[in-house]
Design brief:
Blueprint (H helix, E strand, L loop, with lengths): L6 H4 L9 H4 L3 H4 L7 H5 L8 E6 L2 E6 L6 E4 L2 H27 L13
Antiparallel strand pairs: 1-2, 2-3
Length: 116
């Protein structure tokens, strides 16, 4: 059973602190054009996903509920969780790269918060 979450806690966005290296950059360097990947290197926001897991014979199997196609297995529950975390990370990075490749030319990045 999932613990209830108040709507107020869902709307809070973590603060991103500038690193010393970022603070040395000019405003134009901190918010570069689409050709630079500095934003990806600086803004890392934690996210939480739901793993649906179950024991199936000798194996543990699981899926990430929010992202289609992210699933894995493991000989132990802990191994399954590690494998799901790795598969999710790889899927997000591949999706990110696909989006950047599709954007071509100038673009902007916008963080979007969704409450479900």
């Amino acid at each position: 059973m999932k613990a209830p979450t108040s709507p107020a806690s869902l709307t809070k966005v973590p603060k991103v602190r500038a690193t010393p290296a970022l603070k040395k950059l000019s405003k134009d360097q901190r918010f570069p054009s689409a050709q630079s990947d500095i934003i990806q290197q600086v803004i890392l926001m934690p996210a939480t996903y739901t793993a649906i897991i179950k024991k199936d014979g000798d194996w543990w199997i699981g899926w990430i509920q929010e992202i289609s196609g992210v699933n894995s297995q493991g000989e132990t529950r802990e191994e399954l969780i590690d494998n799901l975390r790795s598969a999710l990370s790889e899927a997000i990075e591949m999706n990110r790269q696909d989006a950047l490749d599709a954007a071509k030319g100038p673009y902007e990045e916008q963080l979007i918060e969704v409450i479900v």
